[in-house]
Amino acid sequence: MTALHIAILSPLAFAFFIPLLAKYVRRIHTGWFVLILPALLFIYFLRMIGMSANGETLKAELAWIPSFGINFTAYIDGLGLLFALLITGIGSLVVLYSIYYLSKEREQLGSFYVYLLMFMGAMLGVVLVDNVIVLYVFWELTSISSFLLIGYWYKREKSRYGATKSMLITIFGGLALLGGFILLYIMTGSFSIRSMVSQTDIILSHDLFIPALVLILIGAFTKSAQFPFYIWLPDAMEAPTPVSAYLHSATMVKAGIYLVARFTPIFAFSEVWFWVVSITGLITLFWGSFNAVKQTDLKSILAFSTVSQLGMIMSMLGIGSAALHYNHFEYYLVSIIAAIFHLINHATFKGSLFMAVGIIDHETGTRDIRKLGGLMTIMPITFTITLIGAFSMAGLPPFNGFLSKEMFFTSVLRISEFNLFHVSTWGPLFPILGWTGSVFTFIYSMVLLFKTFGGKYQPEKLEKPAHEAPLGMLISPVILGSLVVIFFFFPNILSYRIIEPAAESIMPHLLAGNEKFKVKLEGWHGPSPELYMTIGVVVLGILAYLTLTKWKKIYRLFPEKLTLNTLYDRTLYGIEKTSNKVTRTYMTGFLRDYLVYVFLFFIMMIGGSLVLTGGFSFDTKGNAEIGAYELVLSAVIIAATLTTIVAKSRLTAIIGLGVIGYTIALFFVIFRAPDLALTQLIIETISVSLFLLCFYHLPKLSFKPRTVKFRVTNVVVSIGVGAVVTLVALAANSQHTLNSISTYFIENSYKLGGGHNIVNVILVDFRGFDTLFEITVLVIAALGIYGMIRLRLEKRGEEQ
Amino acid sequence: MKKQQTNDVILQTVTKIACFIILLFSFHIFLAGHNNPGGGFIGGLMTASSFVLLLLAYDLKTVQNILPVNFIYVAGTGLLISICTSAGSFLFGAQFLTHSFGYFDLPLLGKTELATAVLFDIGVYLVVVGVTMTIIQTIGERE
Lengths: 800, 143
What we know:
The complex is a heterodimer of chains A (about 800) and B (about 140).
Chain A: H1 3-15, H2 18-24, H3 30-46, H4 49-53, E1 58-65, E2 70-76, H5 78-101, H6 109-128, H7 132-150, H8 157-188, H9 193-198, H10 200-204, H11 209-223, H12 232-235, H13 241-250, H14 255-267, H15 271-292, H16 298-320, H17 330-364, H18 380-394, H19 400-415, H20 423-426, H21 429-453, H22 471-489, H23 492-506, H24 529-546, H25 548-551, H26 554-557, H27 564-586, H28 591-613, H29 628-646, H30 650-670, H31 674-695, H32 708-733, H33 742-753, H34 758-766, H35 768-799
Antiparallel strand pairs in A: 1-2
Chain B: H1 9-32, H2 40-57, H3 60-66, H4 71-88, E1 101-106, E2 110-115, H5 116-141
Antiparallel strand pairs in B: 1-2
Helix pairs in contact in B: 1-2, 2-5, 4-5
């Protein structure tokens, strides 16, 4: 166990002490204790930047299940470190924010911070392990803790709905991911990602390559809310705002991005990967931003905006894989760098926006933009933060979103010149989708800003009079907001130390020896097509925003019935209803129906295997002669059986059964089994008299059949069972492969057992063990009958 | 089995004699079991059937007076005897349920074969008698 392992597991370990602190130290807000941990971890990871900037990695192994090759291998490279810094850095700010956001008196702080720490530990685990099984364990832990956090206010119906939805979708993806990991293991024989990367050639030529790729992408897309799996994210907005800021904008939803980036070295050579990742990303980008415009709830706008921005990062990761196919890879590598840069930018501005929205919600009591307005002068600091965040999101200078958006435009423009994978046909699609998405992004960013802060103040619609937030609540968004500006003016503090090593871990194949990527970000790069595209976005966006009321009707054209949410709800309802219906059709509660199933399966399995394997053979050799006694007795037994079946009264049926029993005893006599004959006679007598004892208490035999169909089924099934058993018996009798062991008993019954009656010697001596338990069965049956009758009588007596 | 009518003189008289014959036959079948058809199971059933005959001829109370036995205990005792004789082979260092036999010169009977398997069979016999009687008595007592 190294320091790195301790760092990953420390949030989980610390979570155990939270309930104690929350219970016994009530004077101090629990959040203050929690704050220490992510802050320390952030400093710990900051100190690793120097190491990672030199291109070094850190690996530490801890045996977990070594016999299966499952070890807790912590591994830090540029990509992992970037995510670890995001998780701990934004984690600290979110904890600080939540201290002021959540009331000490009204909320269950213990549970909140336990879930949050659980999530933090799980997320660190996801990004810092090398073993895919361990990665999967942490991956599911993020799903579970996210479920708990979304359902934090569990008394609200909508929280529970959102939590269930996110759980179902992300766990579905998680299981697909596990499948993908197992396929990779089958291909490479190793659970370690780095060892998989070194075997890329084997994976690429393997039959299971495409299934593994698809399964892993499903996992990544469900977690990162890509089309069509994005539907859980808007409903996850029922969580407390610090949770939305942390999980659903900065960290958890980027786990899918991390996964795609992490597996790029393995899959990116494939055409399928390029198309699926980039097109899904672009569609998500467009669809998310398009839908964000029609939302009226601030958090819903931000949710759809997150979906769209994640789509943008995803598409850039897909496009970036083009770099692998060219010698002068720098030309396409820009999109990988843009993806990493935008990942950081998005975490900063989206985190601050969520916190600002939380402040508005906290101070006015509503998040509905139709009720809000005119808060600019009342909440100046929140306004500034929102302005910075929204402008950065829209891609305007002087904020960091501008830089990454320009780089995004560069990469979609360059990819349309790409001449592999039939891109020449579809090439124009990339810039068009990307640009349209950006226009909508601009519109909703303006809606978010000006509908909330511009216009007229309407105090009568608000639950409480609006005022500026307390200082503590503002610290975190102010820090994030300043980072947004700092990263615009000094983007290169990131590029050398963080973006370069991260790009190196995403694209390790491009580097030979000690080569390093050279990343240089510039705030201003002169007039270029990208700049004109941005100007186009701004002009068209402003026009569209001003005429919003006129064209907003187009959203109504799209029927509610055709949305993915309806599909999800209908599917769930349908599954439940169908399974209920299916269960109801075969679980009738009637024993006779279950017997029909049992016998039908018997016929199908045994008869079917007889037919399929050709196991039936018929051989009369070695059969004994049939004598007159046998023929007569058989005729009697058949007649008695028919009588029993068709008898109209129960008495006839019982006597028919008795006849069968005595005839069997006679069969034992002529087949020379005196012990059996004696026993059969007496047992038959006793059972017939017991039948007669019950006779008076039973209702008349009912011959009113339920349906004709039922009767026909019964006839068919019983004839089928009879036929199958007869065939099996004949087939078995026709094949004597081994000698009988009865000669041993005949020879040794007197020598070893001291008796001439072989049957009896077998029963009490050779096979006495069976007899011992048969008499036990008899005793249990007697006690059972005694118990049933006596206890029922006593109970009835009590009632009287 | 409700209270029997008391004027079944012929039945009751025949029962008095037949019962003993059946009992004797059942003992014979039980003891002969090792070398001839028979054994604990059939012997037990026959003993029980002689008791059933008594039950038919007389009423339940009378039979309980003649045979003041709780048949559940009989069944339990039988099971205990069977298990003990099976486990008795441990005393001689043999495996569970190992039987042995030998010939002895008994006073009155002369040279006789004695087998531990018969002890086991006594258990079977008692279980069968006890079980059959318990079932019939319990069902018969039911109102």
